[in-house]
Amino acid sequence: MESDNIAENTAISEAESQYKLGLNYIYGTDVIKDTSKAAECFQKAADLGFLPAKRELGILLASGDGVETDMEKAVGYLSEAADQLDPSALYHLGLMYELGIGVPKDLQKCVRMLAYAAEMGYPGADVDAERIDKLLYEERAKKLRARPILHLQISDVDVEAACCKPMLDKLLAEEIVFIDSYKGPALLGEDKDGMDTVLECCPFCGAPIQLIDRDTKF
User: Fold this and answer.
1) pLDDT (0 to 100) of residue 217
2) β pairing state of 152-154 and 209-211
3) Using CB atoms within 10 A as the burial measure, which of 36, 55, 103, 180 is most buried?
């Protein structure tokens, strides 16, 4: 048991050393800047399971900086780090979802990742999250105005249609918003006392909230 602990501690120490050396090569700290050598160090640390090294290696693989571009590996490394709420991985993977680089283009996933990164203080993530949120609002407004005002419908990622003019106005003004609650997709509005509440139906016409597939044809 003791020998296992010693081996584990040795591996962790080696991984950290390789990671730090990789960073030195990235920034040219005490060594000549060399992203190829940085990638080699990060790979050694990543092979030992060191998560920050996987993140950095993922960024290099995605950009092709110092290594041959490999989007599949890049997404794999960045996703693993993002799943552990690494803010840098969330930020870079979020931007990939914005442009559809290595992953399907998905502004909803993009803005969620950027928002998480912003909450953890990652530089610039708040600005990018706000920019993507504006794009999503413009897409949503265009969609809602183009669809028949008949049913109140939401998908797993957004509100898809309004049931009446007052509801449409509230959605466009973002006074009623789509949320992903612990019970699933929902609409958040206010009760008669002005407190936030999850809506069960339209407060204006009483139409029920229908959960539909995002690809439903209108």
Assistant:
1) 64
2) parallel
3) 55
CA–CA dist 198, 111 (Å, integer) = 22
Residue 169 Cα distances to 26, 94, 165, 186, 218, angstroms: 51, 30, 6, 18, 20
Amino acid, single-letter form, for residue 15: A
Q: What's the token pair of residue 161?
A: 């249609």
Domain count, the chain: 2
Task: Tell me the pLDDT tens digit for each residue of 32-57.
Answer: 999 999 999 999 999 999 999 999 99
Dmax over Cα atoms in the chain, in whole Å? 71
Token look-up 């992903």 returns 180
Q: List C-alpha distances in Å: 89 to 12, 77, 171, 181.
A: 21, 9, 32, 24
Q: Are 94 and 113 in contact (CB under 8 A)?
A: yes
Residues 168 and 196 in one domain: yes
